[in-house]
Amino acid sequence: MNIDKQDQPRQPLLPNTAASRLGILGGGQLGRMFAHAAQAMGYQVAVLEPEAACPAAQVAEHHVQLAYDDEQGLALLSRLAPRVTTEFENVPADSLKLLATGGFVAPAAACVSIAQDRLAEKHFFTRCGLHTGVYPAPHWGIASEEDLKSVNDDLLPGILKTTRMGYDGKGQVRVRNREELHTAYALMQGHCVLEKMLPLAYEVSVLVARGVDGEAVVYPIAENVHRDGILFTTLAPSPNVSPEVARQAQKAALDIIAELGYVGVLCIEFFVLTDGSIVVNEMAPRPHNSGHYTMDACDTSQFEQQVRALAQLPLGSVRQHSAAAMLNILGDVWFDGERQREPAWDRILAIPGAHLHLYGKAEARRARKMGHVTFVASSMELARANLRSACVILGIATPESA
Ligand code: ATP
Ligand code: MG
């Protein structure tokens, strides 16, 4: 099974020529960091994004300010850039298909479509489980009252999730029993997936990348902690993971990316359960927040890797040269109660091994991702201690987990 049936041109797009332009759908922070990596290597970048002062358009050479499904916008992007990628998974699959008629698109629409639909994704992971031995959580698709009635008792307590558009813990409700399930479904309606609530020990993600020639690389395992549904910290390499679990998760990630016939960077989230077994949760068809540490701690960042895959250049080394602890910076740190303030970046940058990344968002809002800081060090203990010092400076409750 190779999901990506795209007839791909097989030729590197070298940097530093008149044609060396890479296109991106979406103008958020992931697009911005992709643009930085592309420009550092001698490419120009064109962004399709309806919003005016978005993070990526501030740095890209070309900004097509139209909707992601605007045919003229897509045609213009295609003319500007012979190779196009996406920075978010909810881009209309039809837009990727249309772009693929005029140039090379990675990842392909067929791969992105699977990641857009939780149920399709779980079916895909279940099929892959035959090779990987790693399966998704027990689940049941619910699209009608009939489906609701046929839910097995064994799936409760569980989590009811919308099949599409869920992110940062939005679009999901925890349900303890049938009554709560009925109430939650009545509110959510549409297509949902009920997942059995599993006893998680911790959560990890595995970043993989694959070139058009089928060559693939896998980064070290990163361990993620969420707060209020949003990624809070990533520690890499994961301090909790055993060599056996690391090997299993990395092998599963490589099998999954090969099964997809995927080109580009893919991030796969796994749960490690209290009994030590692992479960595959979901995948993001793009660089991921939990992979930001690669910018400062690995030979090749996830964004450079995406540039290399899109340009059909050899993939870079995934060696991690320093322990890394990444702290997400949300808009909340601009608030002291009701009063707005500017965070003390000078004090953050006085911490050894601190790398500050801010995304150029003018307005700080609570829960809005504004940037991140990665602390690199010779040991994880040191990286974590530095992350904790930063939390104190920024007024963020110190994480027990980090
Ligand atoms: P994001 O896009 O931010 O990764 P999401 O909204 O797509 O999140 P999930 O990653 O599926 O949703 O779930 C969010 C969090 O809820 C997980 O990180 C995990 O902590 C918890 N969770 C999800 N599914 C389960 C489960 N089956 N059992 C236990 N906990 C779960
Ligand atoms: Mg998730």
Automatic annotation (TrEMBL):
Gene Ontology molecular functions: 5-(carboxyamino)imidazole ribonucleotide synthase activity; ATP binding; metal ion binding; phosphoribosylaminoimidazole carboxylase activity
Gene Ontology biological process terms, A to Z: 'de novo' IMP biosynthetic process
Pathways involved: Purine metabolism; IMP biosynthesis via de novo pathway; 5-amino-1-(5-phospho-D-ribosyl)imidazole-4-carboxylate from 5-amino-1-(5-phospho-D-ribosyl)imidazole (N5-CAIR route): step 1/2
Source taxon at top rank: Bacteria
Tagged with keyword ATP-binding: yes
Catalytic activity: 5-amino-1-(5-phospho-beta-D-ribosyl)imidazole + hydrogencarbonate + ATP = 5-carboxyamino-1-(5-phospho-D-ribosyl)imidazole + ADP + phosphate + 2 H(+)
Positions annotated to bind ATP: 118, 161, 166-172, 195-198, 203, 226, 281-282
GO cellular component, one term: cytosol
Alphabetic keyword roster: ATP-binding, Ligase, Nucleotide-binding, Purine biosynthesis
EC code(s) of this entry: 6.3.4.18
Pfam families, per the entry: ATP-grasp, PurK_C, RS_preATP-grasp-like
Location of the ATP-grasp domain: 127-311
Quaternary structure, from the entry: Homodimer.
Function summary: Catalyzes the ATP-dependent conversion of 5-aminoimidazole ribonucleotide (AIR) and HCO(3)(-) to N5-carboxyaminoimidazole ribonucleotide (N5-CAIR). Catalyzes the ATP-dependent conversion of 5-aminoimidazole ribonucleotide (AIR) and HCO(3)- to N5-carboxyaminoimidazole ribonucleotide (N5-CAIR).
Family assignment from sequence similarity: Belongs to the PurK/PurT family.
Protein name: N5-carboxyaminoimidazole ribonucleotide synthase
Organism in which the protein naturally occurs: Undibacterium rugosum
Lineage per the UniProt record: Bacteria, Pseudomonadati, Pseudomonadota, Betaproteobacteria, Burkholderiales
Gene name, Swiss-Prot/TrEMBL: purK
